[in-house]
Amino acid sequence: MENTRCGEIAVLLDQLEDLIEEGKTNFLSGKVAIDKNEMVEIIRDIRLKLPTEVQQSVWIVEERNKILNEAQKEAHVIIEEAREQMQSMIEKDQITLFAKERAENIVSTAKEDAKNMHRGAILYAQDTCKDIEQRLKYTLESIHQEVQNFESYITDMLRDVYDNRQELKEMSQKIEKSDEE
């Protein structure tokens, strides 16, 4: 499935490249005029086909938040249960102390687990974003290189046309001189 999406993204990038290559080049500035709507549509399609890692990172953050909320609710429930038990056993000091320690341990463990899950989700999302950023930079560099190659090609063609025109001009002048003699 991922290979298919990557392939679809590659096709869309090819279309974007073709759109740029087919654009009209301004000889003075070297800028390319392209169809804005067509380019925006291709970019939207690319966004829709981004790898599932991006979608998974969003899902992981949402799941992390759900787990944190559930852990907090569970911690509150456990604390409330511990309080109720402490109330019923208030006369017995040792049992009261044990209940407090147990409740604090459970809350501490739940908080630590939530922190660890939160760190893991952030690291995963960070790595995924870094990977996507690198892929997009590579794509942009490739497009930039192709545009430079295209500009170089057009410049060479213009030089050739100019040189040919100069040769023809010289030939024409030679013919005129020979006609005059």
Tell me how many strands there are: 2
Which strand order do you get reading across the main beta sheet? 1-2
Low-confidence stretches: none
- Would you tell me the overall average pLDDT? 82
What is the ordering of alpha helices and beta strands? HEEHHH
How many separate helices?
Answer: 4
Break the fold down into its secondary structure elements and pairings.
Layout: H1 2-22, E1 24-25, E2 32-33, H2 36-48, H3 52-88, H4 93-180
Protein name: ATPase
Organism: Candidatus Cellulosilyticum pullistercoris
Could you describe the 3D structure shown?
This is ATPase. It comes from Candidatus Cellulosilyticum pullistercoris. This protein is an all-alpha fold. 2% of the residues are buried. A hairpin with a 6-residue loop joins strand 1 and strand 2. It has helices at 2-22, 36-48, 52-88, 93-180; strands spanning 24-25, 32-33. The mean pLDDT is 82. The chain has a two-stranded antiparallel sheet.
Give a concise summary.
Helices cover 88% and strands 2% of the residues. It is mainly α and 181 residues long.
